[in-house]
């Protein structure tokens, strides 16, 4: 396992040496941010610069190429103004799944209204429904089905945020609050899907997403 604190300290040193005062925000997302990382986990870094242009992209690329575990490094890099004008429906997950290390993303909070969160949930449900149907009819891939079930977990986080006003960041926290139907979706997302299970589980996922699309959350 990667010592993530040590890694992030090194990343921050290189980031500030490379960009100085141009760094608006630095943080981490994903399983390392939630404290749920495994040996297979990527390192999902968030870097927001005051301005991101071609030169900054080249400098960032050169910087990360000097870091260990380069093959695991991914995440989100943006200019500040682009982020502040981002599609608001996408900002809910981005804000709450990001653990700040340097700076703050609180400027995004006024953009994340209840209506925008509802819109994000419905869009996610539509995407899951279409993806499950398309995969069932065409690709017939257990891996795609698994990724759609994983996407459903992010939808559940948004759904329960609307219900209880708290963002359930970890799987353990989320699992404790789920209804029976949502718990069934959560359970499948924790395991691999076999070819034999593909049809039944895809139809189950479509039915679950359909209810959200038609009736709301």
- C-alpha Rg (nearest Å): 19 Å
* Overall 3D shape: globular
Mean pLDDT across all amino acids: 97
Order of helices and strands: HEHEHEHHEHHHHH
> Helical proportion?
55-70%
Spatial strand order of the main sheet? 3-2-1-4
| Total strands | 4
Main sheet overview: 4 strands, mixed
Number of helices: 10
Structural class: alpha+beta
The percentage of residues in β strands lies in 5-15%
How widely separated are the two ends? 38 Å
Count up the domains.
2
Would you give an account of this structure?
By secondary structure, the chain is of the alpha+beta class. It has 2 domains: 4-87 and 97-111, Beta Polymerase, domain 2 (2-Layer Sandwich), CATH 3.30.460.10; 114-215. The protein is 58% helix and 12% strand. The chain is built from 10 helices and 4 strands. The chain has helices spanning 4-19, 30-34, 54-64, 80-84, 91-96, 114-139, 142-164, 171-175, 180-189, 198-215; strands at 23-29, 43-49, 73-79, 99-102. It has a 4-stranded mixed beta sheet. The radius of gyration is 19 Å and the shape is globular. The model has no long low-confidence stretch (mean pLDDT 97).
């Amino acid at each position: 396992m990667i010592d993530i604190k040590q890694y992030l300290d090194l990343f921050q040193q290189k980031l500030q040496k490379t960009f100085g005062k141009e760094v608006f925000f630095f943080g981490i997302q994903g399983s390392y941010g939630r404290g749920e990382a495994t040996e297979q986990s990527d390192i999902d870094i968030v870097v927001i610069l005051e301005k991101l242009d071609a030169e900054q992209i080249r400098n960032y690329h050169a910087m990360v190429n000097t870091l260990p575990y380069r093959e695991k490094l991914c995440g989100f890099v943006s200019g500040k103004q682009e982020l502040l004008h981002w599609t608001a429906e996408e900002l809910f997950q981005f804000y709450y799944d990001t653990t700040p290390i340097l700076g703050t993303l609180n400027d995004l909070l006024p953009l994340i209204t209840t209506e925008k969160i509802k819109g994000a949930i419905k869009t996610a449900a539509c995407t899951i429904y279409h993806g499950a149907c398309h995969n069932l009819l065409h690709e017939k891939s257990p891996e795609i089905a698994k990724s759609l079930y994983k996407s459903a977990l992010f939808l559940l986080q948004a759904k329960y945020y609307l219900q209880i006003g708290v963002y359930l960041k970890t799987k353990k926290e989320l699992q404790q609050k789920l209804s029976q139907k949502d718990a069934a979706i959560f359970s499948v997302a924790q395991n691999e899907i076999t070819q034999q299970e593909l049809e039944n589980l895809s139809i189950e996922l479509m039915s679950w997403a359909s209810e959200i699309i038609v009736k709301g959350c």
